[in-house]
Amino acid sequence: MTPDQKLWSRTRDDLVRTVKSLGFPAEFGEVIAKHLGSPKAMERMISYLDYVKPKTEELVVDEMLAIRSEIDAWKEKKASEEANARYNEMLYYGLTEDTDE
């Protein structure tokens, strides 16, 4: 197992343990971890669970969706910035055509 996989597994286990401590099933924690995807997102979720201690699954899912939405918005912003940089580069240097005439 790679170090990244070990980190993901350890963070998932922490999330599942936290979800169980609130009285929810372990499977629920595993589904939440799978949807969050990254250790950083799972750590944010663990912090939320420790601080708020939600009483319903709906509140947990709502926070998971909020975290996921923020991650998706960040990725979209980065992709847009990259596309804008390429576009500006094209404007500055112009289009180059390879012609064999």
Q: Can you put this structure into words, describing what you see?
A:
- 80% of the residues lie in helices and 0% in strands.
- The chain is mostly helical and 101 residues long.
- It has one domain.
- Helix 1 (3-21) crosses helix 2 (26-36) and helix 1 packs parallel to helix 3 (39-52).
- It starts with a helix and ends in an 8-residue tail after the last helix.
Short synopsis of the structure:
This protein is 80% helix and 0% strand.
Q: Termini distance? A: 55 Å
Number of DSSP helices?
4
On the 0-100 scale, what is the average pLDDT? 90
| Rg computed from alpha carbons, rounded to a whole number of angstroms | 21 Å
When the domains are counted, the total is 1
Helicity range: over 70%
The assigned structural class equals mainly alpha
Characterize the biggest β-sheet. none
What ranges have pLDDT less than 50 throughout 5 or more consecutive residues? Answer: none
In what range is the share of β-strand residues?
under 5%
How many DSSP-defined strands? 0
- Provide the succession of SSEs: HHHH
Estimate the global geometry from the Cα principal axes. Answer: elongated
